[in-house]
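PT: before anyone asks, these are the final sequences, not the draft ones from last week. 692 residues across everything. Please model them as a single complex and drop the result in this thread when it's through.
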Amino acid sequence: MEFGWTPEQEEHRERVKTLLAKELPENWDEIAVHGPGSDAQTAFSKIFCKRLAEEGLLISHWPREYGGNDMSVWDQFIMGEELWAAGEPRGPQYMNVNWIGPVLMRYANDAQKAKYFPSIAEGSVIWCQGFSEPSAGSDLASLRTKAEKVEGGYLVNGAKVWTSYAGLATHCFLLARTASAGKGAIVILLVDMSSPGVQVKQIPALIGEGDIHEVFFTDVFVPAENLLGEEGQAWEIITFALQNERIGIPRYAFSRRMLDRAAAKLQAEGRFGDPIVRDRAGRALAMCEAARLMVYRVVHQRATQAPQDAYGNLARWAIVQADHAVNDFMTEFMPEGLLGADQMQIAHHQRAIAAGIASGAAEIQLNLAARRYLDLPGEPRRAV
Amino acid sequence: MQFDLSEDQSAILSGLEQLIGSLNIEAPKDPVVSAYSQPLDDELTAGGFFEITQQEGFGLLDGALIVEALAKLPVSVEAAATILVAPAFLEDAGRRPVALVSGSAAVPARFLPMAKTLLVDKGDDVLRIDIPEGAVEEVETLFAYPYGRLKNPEALPAVSLGASRVAELRRRWRVAIAVEAAGLMQSALDTVLEHVKTRQQFGRPIGSFQAIQHRLVMAAEQGQATRWLALRAAWSDSDADAAIAATYAQDATPKFANDLHQFCGAMGLTLEFPLHHWTYRLRALLGELGGSSGSALAAADAVWVKAS
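LR: through. Structure below.
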């Protein structure tokens, strides 16, 4: 047991930092303010991801046979930490490389791999995930979007909601069902967002520009070759995808950066001498570091290829607490930031208030951890 | 970054487990608020466990793993100060058990009834006081540790170790608080998990109610986070990591302890049920070195003020 980095890992982190210092424009904070789904950040992601690809860093954690460099799990995570702390210049494309690509590697056929990998690998494509629906949020298995089997493919009808990045997405990782009930009737379709019948409507929200949308599918034809895996295999694929998605975002890294920034600002303004302020800052710091180590424990598990347990669910709860602690600290002691004085603080606030909701409600993580980590008995099914 | 135990660490903990197993240590049957195990103390001394950090190839992290394992027991033994703090301050490592106080030598301290050495954080100095026989009076407390107070502190000679040692004492003491808290939290949680899986109400185990499940997971998360922060602090031996670990542990303690007792209902208020042996030791740690506020200020100062 030890908690340090190897010289190679330190060097890798420095390389990412140096790249960020070189590639992020002077007005990066203004670009990053509106979140990964904004027009500005999405547009910048295509420039930045192309540069990452040229440096061999965009998909370096992928296996060589898919154009990657077999980068270690830890190196991939170190890069994710630095990028997220910087405001995630990959924009929505972090999803492509973190989980859509790995899911396709495992479940796509050769034709699908040939079709989708090049654009992900060069950083020119935006994917969205068509999961949540008006009546299926945390209870994903009750989704209603229909995929009716027709000659040559599927006819999709239904609506998705809370869909991040859909406004500028070129592809959708869509869940739909071929029959009325059951997880076994769910299929995964890789949908071209320019297909006739796809309509996207942005939802004005507290969490920034372009982040959440409604997506309507009206008689959208999806060719059979765009079915991922086999019919009946979708739930297995979703479970695999969520394992990669849920802990893939080191949100605490951005919170820690914001806390460091807040402390520096309060010191410069002569307000950090107040022990009440330092006390609260110290507690928020402890929450950030707790989240960091909980996540590192999950990464260690992946790096050593240990069987997945419910530790990721615990870690997710720690991440939410860290985001909230930093946001609450700044809201209480630096309210001027949310009154227009600090756009980065507003951006952090917008991410923090979504921390327990985005990527699956935190309460679901608690349910899963209760069952799988603490081995507590399940609630009996209620009589209907 | 390696979260698994090394072979040496596994071997040490395995040896410790055997030693503990040979003593058949169980929660006290009689209703007592605290129980000190002198047989365990004697065996640990004989086995060289208290000197682990002075052995070649071993360090503070290895000592922390021993302290954590001992904290899981339903009886107490003075190990944290001996293993994690004293080596840097005692000329004679054998003058243990070691008690720690801050502010004044006159205030009650954990383990003082059996202590041979008292280290005092005076703020501007560290004092080392050798404790002669009969110098201590016991103090009654719910805190599940033996507590005592010097009868006449002014009469005992104190060795000044200097102002430069204060930061070091606090750093090691905070590591000790966090590591011990991690072990205490784990056993407290295990005890409550067993209870909620078997105790039935409304025809089902109370642990099947979501209202309890969620808070138990939060407690588990606090226990795990405390553990990793504490062990990292032992590994790095840095002021910042130590203060962060203690802040987290002390900040988490009130909700953690209150919730665990809540889930056991009135049973959790009895001395018959062993939960208090861990939660009241946790509550005792909460009040040391300025509590969570003292640690949080130390963390803020170490990370932001001294660095600037």
